[in-house]
Design a protein that fits this description.
single chain; alpha/beta; 4-stranded parallel sheet; binds 6-O-phosphono-beta-D-fructofuranose
């Protein structure tokens, strides 16, 4: 395998707090190890359009605390076509980039896997998504910050929910995964979480009502994971209005505020460790793996595993929430 002298770095898909800390870590670890670094703007789109700039250590100064991504991000249609990827490859070669570090979620790592296979380009992925839905890593960059943002919002909503003695359905992100909803519910002391992972097993609303979740309480908070499988918060509010008209129901959809904000210490440390490990992996000759964390140790997870395997929800967490919300 030819020696790697220059790496390209990009962020792709939905942004996540901590992506900047990861960009900083990859850039500085690469320079420390004698590699040249090129920042690619707007995700894969920048590879196709040639929006690429050399990064020195100073280019990543004072960004560890910033949410979003200084490299911008995009979901790129052109890169989904063989013609688009061919142009991307040619631009990469023109810039002298030998390997890529891709920070993103499921879709971004899928793009990396296809590109790596087609053009034999070494690609290393970093799990950057608030959804925490990548297999093989305990957590992803941005997840902890998003969870804390959810807590902040739920604490505030609880004040008004209690004053008015209302039932609130609060919809949180997560795409098809319920990690934000479930752990957000445990951490905020919510009465329940409605998550896609168990939507087909039980009617979660009926279960809630049957358990008399409001008997001794003057407000109730239910976190609902966005997903076509759950149907979202509005769906449950409508059901309650129709099936249990005694409740005074309101809905809050937290939306994109979950994606912003300064990353927590946890996400900054995670991003720094994963970013440095990405360069270690490149120096060791690894390719087409996502860098993850498993029991506090760095692990290399093949793209195929990280993307295709469904990351399971721990039943123990579901039970903890049930037991503690009586
Ligand atoms: O994957 C991150 C995420 O925030 C999901 O939780 C959400 O479903 C999606 O991105 C929203 O995407 P967009 O910003 O393109 O609307």
């Amino acid at each position: 395998m030819p020696a790697i002298k220059c790496i390209g770095i990009l962020t792709s898909g939905g942004d996540a707090p901590g992506m900047n800390a990861a960009i900083r870590a990859v850039t500085r670890a690469a320079i420390y190890n004698g590699l040249q670094v090129k920042g690619i703007y707007r995700g894969y789109k920048g590879l196709v359009t040639g929006e690429i700039k050399e990064f020195k250590s100073q280019n990543v100064s004072n960004i560890i605390q910033l949410g979003g991504t200084i490299l911008k991000t995009a979901r790129c249609k052109e890169f989904c076509t063989p013609e688009g990827r061919q142009i991307a490859y040619e631009n990469m070669k023109k810039e002298g980039i030998d390997a890529l570090v891709i920070i993103g979620g499921d879709g971004s790592l899928t793009g990396a896997r296809i590109f790596a296979e087609e053009f034999d380009v070494p690609c290393i992925g970093l799990p950057g998504t608030i959804d925490n839905d990548l297999f093989g890593t305990d957590t992803t960059i941005g997840y902890d910050t998003a969870l804390n943002t959810i807590l902040d919002a739920v604490d505030k909503i609880r004040d008004t929910a209690t004053s008015h003695e209302r039932l609130f359905f609060i919809e949180v992100m997560g795409r098809d995964a319920g990690f934000l909803a479930l752990n957000g519910a445990i951490a905020s002391g919510a009465e329940a979480a409605i998550i896609p992972e168990i939507s087909t097993e039980v009617d979660q609303l009926e279960e809630l009502i049957k358990n008399g979740f409001r008997k001794s309480k003057n407000s109730s908070i239910v976190l609902v994971a966005e997903s076509p499988i759950t149907g979202g918060a509005m769906h449950y509010a409508e059901r309650v209005k129709n099936e249990y008209p005694g409740y005074d129901v309101r809905v809050t959809i937290l939306g994109h505020l979950q994606r912003g904000g300064s990353p927590t210490a946890h996400d900054r440390i995670l991003a720094s460790r994963l970013g440095a490990a990405a360069i270690d992996a490149i120096m060791e000759g690894q390719r087409n793996v996502m860098i993850g964390i498993d029991h506090d140790e760095i692990v290399y997870v093949p793209f195929t595993k990280a993307i295709k395997n469904d990351k399971p929800i721990k039943k123990e967490l579901v039970n903890v929430l049930r037991e503690l919300s009586i």
